[in-house]
Amino acid sequence: MSSVIGLKVRASILRTPGDSPGLLFLDGRQWPFTLDNVWKSPVAPSVNMLVDVDFDGEGNITAIAAVDPQQAAKEKLNQIGGEAKEQVDKAVVIASQGVGALASRMGKATLAATVVVWIAWFFMPGLGFSVSFFGAGQTKSFALWNALSFDPNNNMNPGSAGLLNLIVIVGIVAPLVASFIRHPQARYLYAAPLACLLIAWFTIQHEFSQALVAAGIAASISGIKMTPDYGTYVAALASLVVAARALKRPAS
Predict the structure, then answer these.
(1) Counting beta carbons within 10 angstroms of the beta carbon of residue 46, is it exposed (0 to 12), middle (13 to 18) or buried (19 or more)?
(2) From residue 165, how far is each of 100, 146, 148, 149, 156 by CA, in Å?
(3) Residue 85 in 3-state DSSP?
(4) pTM for this model (two decimals)
(5) Residues 33-68: tens digit of each pLDDT
């Protein structure tokens, strides 16, 4: 009883008093109670009702009052919000520790450039295609990732992913993996994003040309052309920054 002596504590009613005393659940225990001289609320007690319980210095119940439902709901929301904030704070700490550890292995500039490579591949316009059936002077742009699997015979829309997509994924993930490999030659993995960008560019260009040949179209006559958009330049520049890490010899 010492943990509740002289305190006001929150409890819930497990059983209302009748022929036998009622039961409160508080402090991890069941406590018997009666209504005589202790029930202080105008509403009758009910099962699962939240109540505030006052104890005297000897651990005897001196007052029981029902908690206002709106107040209880507000307190519950505050509790949930506090727990959520605590979990978010923990996640931020863990994430910052992970990013910090990765930055110490790769170098902040290399890590930042690797992130930019990902952004350029997936979210920036990478290639523009000027074709006659889009209308005069109009260009349709794709993110580099979508351009990997475009189908020239399907109104230039992206098709299914293939081997080239897999090569690119491996290439842009390689710098992250390289930071955890102790072998001296692992540093050359930092050049993988640049290598896969070159492979992707020439492969897409070849497939585009082959599609025109198959359709019997001369690009020089029709004005159909493929041009890099700013996403390609961003990816190339960021890939060069990452590749520069390959020139740094690991510490012995």
Answers:
(1) exposed
(2) 29, 9, 6, 8, 17
(3) helix
(4) 0.54
(5) 888 888 888 888 888 888 888 888 777 888 988 888
Q: How far apart are alpha carbons 25 and 178 in whole angstroms?
A: 57
Q: Determine the Cα–Cα distance for residues 63 and 73; give it in Å rounded to an integer.
A: 22
Long-range CB contacts for residues 148-157, cutoff 8 Å, separation at least 24: 148/200, 148/204, 150/204, 152/207, 152/208, 152/211, 152/212, 152/215, 153/211, 153/215, 156/129, 156/131
131 HSE (CA, 13 A, CB side): 19
DSSP, collapsed to helix, strand or coil, labels residue 199 as: helix
Strand partners, 23: 15, 32
The percent of residues above 70 in pLDDT, for the chain, comes to 74
Q: What are phi and psi of 7, to 5 degrees?
A: -120, 160
At 63, give phi and psi (nearest 5°): -160, 140
Q: What is the pLDDT of residue 221?
A: 47
User: Rounded to 10 degrees, what is the CA torsion of 112, 116, 119, 121?
Assistant: -130
Contacts of residue 49, Cβ cutoff 8 Å, sequence gap at least 6: 12, 13, 66, 67
Going by their DSSP bridges, the two strands 8-15 and 50-55 should be labelled as antiparallel
Nearest to 147 by CA among 206, 83, 70: 206
Token pair, residue 73, equals: 């709901």
